[in-house]
Structures are given as C-alpha cells and as structure tokens.
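Form 12-C: Joint structure prediction
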Amino acid sequence: MNLFRLLGDLAHLASIFILLHKIQTTRSCRGISFKTQALYVLVFLTRYVDLFFHWVSLYNFVMKIFFIASSCYILYLMKYRFRPTHDPSLDTFKIEYLLGPCFVLALIFNYHFELAEVLWAFSIYLEAVAIFPQLFMLQRTGEAEAITTHYLAALGVYRALYIPNWIYRYFTEGVVDPIAVVAGIVQTGLYLDFFYVYFTKVLQGQKFELPA
Amino acid sequence: EAPKDNHDEL
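Section 2 - Result
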C-alpha cells in the first residue's frame, strides 16, 4: 500500500458516496447511466471472485465487499426505487460493443489461462471502458447537474491516482502489472475531455455544458 | 513471471 493507492481508493469510495448522495437527496437518478452502473456491478463480480480463495488483507476484503454491495445497491435504487426518474431513451449506448471485445481481449491477454484469471482480465478491460455509456449520455444531453460531475470527477481522480501508484510500485517493489497499467492508462485517458470541462467550468462556478 | 499473486489492487 502506498499513499497514491490509498488516496485513489478513497476517491473511489468518495465517488460512490457522492452518487448515493445525489440519488437520495434529489430522489432521482436523472443524468446517471444505468448501463454504466450495471457494468460496474459486472466488473466487481468478475474481479473479486478471488474473495473465495485468495486472502490479501482485511482492508482489501472490506473494500471488495463494499464495492460489490454498494454497486448492487445503486442498481437497485435505479431499477426499482427511483425507476421513473431514469430515462432509457437517453441511455442508448450499445454495451454489446464493450462486452464482446473485452471478453475476447481477456481470452487472449491474461496472466494464466484459467477461469479466475480470465475473469480478472475481463474485469480490468471492462472497467476501462465502463464509463462510455455515461459519457455518451452526457454528450447527448450536453449538460449535467454539478453533483453528477463531482461524481465523475472523483471516479477520474481515482483512476488518475493509480498511475503514480504504479510508478511508485515499479521503483519500490519492482512490480509491473502490464494488463492493469495499459488498461488503466486508457481508462484515465477517457476522462481527459471531461476533466477539461470540469476544471474550466464547474470548478469556476459555472454550469457543466458541452460546447454545441 | 506474470504477477499471478499480485492482484492486491482494487
């Protein structure tokens, strides 16, 4: 564990609490992509199968359980509790285009050709692109509530912090995880456009609006 | 050697 990873994980936690706060206080999941949230559930379920056979640490264990539980809870809120506030006609990204290639990539690029390892690699690739339906929705509506942008910013910060974490680990532990690093850099790159608008508009007190 | 036991990140 190092400071970058700890802060990254805390940003990830923060993003989930921001999202829950947004849904609970506005009593609405407007502006949130159900598809992206469903993909995160799949990401956590496929990545954390090692909960059953590989103990890392109490921290690791608690966080994994929390990510699985909270992502399922968010899905429940969107699907049942606040269902009428979700507009499927805006959430139209075809996730088949993400699931298929990620699965094929996981079959080809993995550390060991066995179920848990293929699922792990799949989850890494899928997490990298899971934000697409959300960004696509943002692009379609062209604007977002401030709190939704804070949620996305926290998610982006979490990913960005994992990069110095890998650099740090390379120098201190000699460890490199090429699958996680390549996918992680791609994933962080997807946030660059968003970050640009977030820093130049939202943090200056303006509304999040994309140029027409 | 691939970091088989190295899935210690979230």
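Section 3 - Comments
Chain A has one domain: 3-209. The longest helix of chain A spans residues 146-173.
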